[in-house]
Amino acid sequence: MDLKVLLYKVEDNIATITLNRPKRMNAWTGRMHTEYRWALLQAEQDGEVRAIIVTGSGAGFCVGADARALQGHVEKGGYDPGTPDPLALPGFGVRPEFDASFSYHFGLTKPVVAMINGPAAGVGLVLACYADIRFAVPGVKLTTAHGKLNLPAEYGLSWLLPRLIGLTRANDLLLSSRKFSSDEALELGLINRLIDSDLLIQETRAYVLDMIHENSPTSLKMTKKQIYHDQHRDVAAAVTESERLLSEMTQMKDYGEGVAAFLEKRKPQWMGE
What we know:
CATH architecture of the largest domain: Alpha-Beta Complex
Largest sheet: 6 strands, mixed
CATH topology of the largest domain: 2-enoyl-CoA Hydratase, Chain A, domain 1
Number of helices: 10
CATH superfamily of the largest domain: 2-enoyl-CoA Hydratase, Chain A, domain 1
Strand content: 5-15%
Structural class: alpha/beta
Helix content: 40-55%
């Protein structure tokens, strides 16, 4: 795909997807959604990629839907996603619950880290929330934004946000559409870590590199699968599935390598099998 509003780069087994409309603070468009899904699918299908970082270029992460697109909905008399058919289908076909916009993140096999370098509003906040881990610069402004535009909570955020920070806190952010800072988001448990802007890339990459080197590819894949599948089953089913995986994964070569590396006090050399 000829990328016009996105940058895609693979380095050190990490795919970095950068929203690239800096003059518009990376405002979301149908073209951006199309390219984003394409990039996620590339990362998912690339055997060299073990984790994904999502960020924005310039001073913003993503300030929500582009103002011109919002005006376009008014002119057309209703919502127009602005995306072609068909779209790439990253994460689809795993569970019916994941076969929808943005919930497809839960069907991916590789961890996604949102590197929030600037303001995130509306669909920009949605994008960050669907990541598995979120790092942000201190003092960044965040908002659900939808209420001030006569919109519903977008893309399942009414389902997701209570699961991330609890119903009471989520109700505050969803019903008020107020602005809040990344510092408050850390206190709410929405952000994992605050990192100064000049160290954001370095420390985020260091975290991701440590994650993919210290943990086996199969363990990362299966743990992510457990996390999101277990949101849709009871605790007994979760225990049963973990026991099945325990039996299966202790027969793999990487289990033997992990034990040997632990006993020999060295870095593991994962084989992915």
